[in-house]
């Protein structure tokens, strides 16, 4: 078995090279030959790898260049991730293997440059059974090598690619099934629900297509390539249908998981209740390897009223605030009418759907914004579509966000109370104007579970979701492939100053674990508030040795972990 001597230097200092090689060989045997070596995605374009000459692959490089900003090729390879911060070691600009996403043929990025491993694992297992995950936990316990889990690689906080770990790649778990009367194991038949089960590798596009063929509606993310049962779900899982149908965690009824103690568990409201609660919002990559999850579905195709608005943004951005002010003023009413969607400035300005209104009601509801959009010579479409799938095909697929960039988010859950008083709306409008003046256009998913409460705290997701109307993205920045550490720091410090302002705007609220600013302070409270203590207690029961550990995940310790395994992120913002 080929081995790179640079890998696991720490192990080499206490073990001989041959011993380490034996460890990997026996691991490979125990997973039936499904252990593989990985180089970064763009390595075929580079003639050096880790400083040594390397065989390029011109055909593969060209294919990659043509597909660099699309997810299609990335989800079919272990080393493919959506955001470049997942591939590179952000604090060490030498330690990366990136192309120029604005021009993937730009030779400056790869000619006579060394492709370095960054935060991509050097070894991964293509998981196809519970036994594979069990073998990985045994290996981890025996050798001290930590694990990471990757489904699709959409994470914004480098949580699915962790330097020096053995990676578990879940994409191969492709099972999907539909059960009209699904009874969670150990519950009585009175608990039956219409539900679909998705293996950990199933992505939204596959789930939506399957649900449509079955004539039902399943709630999922806005990007077609995100996994249904991975980090999206375990971290909360918002959808434009969430105002009426809840978050992903509100709808999941059962998980099948291998916990780090090696046990395969079925977790639901009747058994392994603590694990079930933790997986409903406590975050991916933390409590074990989820093999599949069962999601409650709506037993029919739900017709949707759709509002789609766009207008040219003025060169001086003078029409941005008037538009946002209308949105601020009308959002409370829209929320009560079931509207969910996105407000943004990349292409379409407002795209909203509601299952609660007729066409005429939708037209009346949207009138203030329709009139404004028309005054700006824009287009305003209000229409009825017969199903989620028809909305997905018409509005999501053509607007898929480009990937392959270093894109850092900053978001906050905006409390409903701010929309309820003139003073609150004024404060919010001031904050938005401040962002716009500083060249940071907001991105606003209106995707909180506005009409869906969780009175018995059956989920562990941030309680701030239930008190909020907007999930406001305010400080996203995109960094070029060749950003120096100084340039990166300057850009991030600007974002960080808005993080402070956002926290002042809504001090008692919080931020979404999956889409948070990576350097969020007091992240335990910001991501989970009062739920953190219980989540930590459960983490310590099932993973006392921290075989699974990720950036600002439950159990992560700033003083220990950040300074050792996570320096690629920790050293960035100092
Ligand atoms: C373009 C884009 C659009 C987005 N849109 C939305 C949206 O509409 N709604 C929303 O809520 N979020 C959205 N997100 C954020 C999304 O929720 C996160 O990126 C999430 O981490 C993706 O989960 P994943 O499993 O597909 O990705 P991965 O990066 O593969 O995994 C994310 C985390 O989950 C863990 N994980 C993955 N699979 C498993 C498993 N089987 N068992 C245990 N842990 C696992 C990983 O270890 C990692 O910690 C979007 C992100 C992007 C880039
Ligand atoms: C694991 O075994 C398979 C099958 O024998 C082989 O193809 C693969 O290269 C091995 N993995 C490693 C890392 O050597
Ligand atoms: C990548 O690019 C090539 C050439 O443009 C194209 O034929 C192919 O379908 C693309 N997608 C994938 C997944 O390779
Ligand atoms: C930065 O990365 C390069 C390439 O991987 C490596 O040689 C160097 O030691 C790293 N520097 C630090 C300070 O870790
Ligand atoms: C490649 O880079 C090295 C130093 O990084 C330099 O010595 C060498 O001349 C370069 N080669 C070419 C062909 O540019
Ligand atoms: C997938 O489904 C098939 C057929 O139902 C079953 O035999 C198999 O065990 C399932 N695989 C996993 C990993 O759940
Ligand atoms: C929004 O409401 C405020 C009062 O709360 C009002 O002063 C302002 O003119 C309204 N803006 C728009 C664009 O309707
Ligand atoms: C609005 O902002 C002011 C100044 O920061 C603050 O004192 C006030 O409490 C805020 N009002 C609301 C409703 O948040
Ligand atoms: C549920 O959680 C909220 C927010 O943390 C808390 O205020 C409330 O007391 C909890 N309710 C129950 C029934 O535990
Ligand atoms: C990054 O590359 C671009 C060209 O692709 C160049 O214009 C820019 O100056 C480079 N930046 C740095 C910091 O080298």
Structure write-up:
The chain has 574 residues and is α+β, with helices and mostly antiparallel strands. The protein folds into three domains: 9-169, Uridine Diphospho-n-acetylenolpyruvylglucosamine Reductase, domain 2; 176-300, Uridine Diphospho-n-acetylenolpyruvylglucosamine Reductase, domain 3 (2-Layer Sandwich); 304-525, 3-Layer(aba) Sandwich (Vanillyl-alcohol Oxidase, Chain A, domain 3). It is 32% helix and 17% strand. It contains 20 helices and 21 strands. The strands form six sheets. Strands 8-9-12-10-11 form a five-stranded antiparallel β-sheet. Strands 16-13-15-14-19 form a five-stranded antiparallel β-sheet. It has a four-stranded mixed β-sheet with strand order 1-5-7-6, with helices on one face. β14 and β15 (350-354) form a beta hairpin. α10 (320-336) runs antiparallel to α12 (367-375), α10 packs across α15 and α15 (422-437) runs antiparallel to α16. It is globular. The model is unreliable at 1-12 (pLDDT under 50). Bound molecules: flavin-adenine dinucleotide and 2-acetamido-2-deoxy-beta-D-glucopyranose (NAG) (9 copies). The site of flavin-adenine dinucleotide has 34 residues, from β6, α6 and β12. Pfam families: BBE, FAD_binding_4. Keywords: Oxidoreductase, Signal. Residues 117-300 form the FAD-binding PCMH-type domain. Residues 1-18 form the signal peptide. Belongs to the oxygen-dependent FAD-linked oxidoreductase family.
């Amino acid at each position: 078995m080929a081995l790179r001597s640079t890998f696991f230097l720490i192990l080499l200092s206490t073990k001989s090279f041959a011993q380490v090689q034996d460890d990997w060989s026996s691991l490979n045997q125990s997973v039936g030959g499904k252990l593989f070596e990985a180089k970064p995605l763009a390595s075929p374009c580079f003639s050096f790898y880790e400083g040594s000459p390397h065989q390029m692959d011109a055909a593969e490089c060209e294919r990659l260049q043509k597909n660099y900003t699309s997810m299609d090729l990335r989800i079919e390879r272990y080393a493919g991730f959506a955001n470049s911060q997942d591939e590179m070691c952000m604090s060490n600009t030498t330690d990366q293997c990136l192309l120029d996403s604005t021009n993937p043929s730009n030779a400056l990025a790869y000619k006579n440059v060394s492709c370095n491993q960054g935060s991509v694992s050097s070894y991964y297992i293509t998981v196809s059974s519970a036994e594979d995950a069990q073998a990985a936990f045994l290996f981890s316990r025996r050798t001290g090598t930590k694990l990471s889990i990757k489904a699709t690689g959409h994470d914004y906080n480098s949580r699915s690619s962790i330097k020096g770990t053995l990676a578990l790649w879940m994409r191969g778990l492709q099972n999907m099934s539909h059960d009209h009367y699904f009874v969670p194991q150990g519950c009585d038949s009175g608990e039956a629900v219409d539900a679909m089960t998705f293996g950990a590798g199933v992505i939204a596009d596959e789930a939506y297509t399957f649900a449509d063929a079955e004539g039902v509606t399943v709630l999922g993310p806005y990007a077609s390539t995100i996994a249904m049962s991975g980090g999206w779900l375990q971290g909360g899982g918002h959808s434009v249908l969430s105002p009426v149908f809840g978050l992903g965690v509100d709808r999941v009824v059962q998980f099948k998981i291998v916990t780090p103690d090696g046990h395969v568990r079925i977790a639901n409201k009747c058994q392994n209740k603590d694990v079930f609660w933790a997986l409903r919002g406590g975050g991916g990559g933390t409590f074990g390897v989820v093999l599949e999850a069962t999601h409650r579905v709506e037993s029919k195709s739900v017709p949707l009223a759709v509002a789609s608005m766009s207008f040219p943004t003025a060169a001086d951005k003078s029409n941005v605030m008037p538009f946002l002010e209308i949105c601020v003023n009308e959002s409370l009413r829209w929320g009560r009418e079931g509207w969910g969607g996105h407000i943004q400035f990349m292409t379409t300005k407002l795209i909203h759907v509601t299952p609660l209104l007729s066409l005429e009601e939708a037209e009346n509801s949207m009138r203030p914004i329709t009139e404004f959009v028309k005054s700006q010579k824009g287009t305003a479409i209000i229409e009825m579509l017969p199903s989620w799938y028809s909305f997905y095909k018409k509005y999501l697929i053509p607007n898929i966000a480009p990937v392959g960039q270093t894109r850092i988010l900053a978001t906050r859950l905006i409390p409903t109370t701010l929309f309820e008083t003139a003073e609150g709306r004024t404060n919010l409008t001031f904050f938005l104007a401040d962002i716009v003046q500083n060249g940071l256009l907001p991105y606003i998913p209106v995707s909180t579970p506005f009409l869906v409460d969780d009175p018995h705290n059956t989920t562990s997701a941030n309680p701030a979701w239930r008190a909020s109307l907007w999930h406001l993205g305010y400080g996203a920045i995109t960094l070029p492939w060749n950003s120096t550490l100084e340039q990166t720091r300057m850009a991030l410090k600007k974002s960080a100053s808005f993080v402070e302002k956002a926290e002042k705007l809504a001090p008692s609220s919080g931020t979404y674990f999956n889409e948070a600013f990576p350097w969020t302070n007091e992240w335990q409270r910001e991501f989970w508030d009062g739920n953190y203590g219980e989540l930590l207690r459960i983490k310590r029961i099932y993973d006392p040795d921290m075989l699974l550990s990720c950036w600002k995940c439950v159990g992560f310790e700033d003083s220990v972990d950040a300074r050792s395994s996570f320096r690629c992120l920790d050293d960035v913002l100092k």
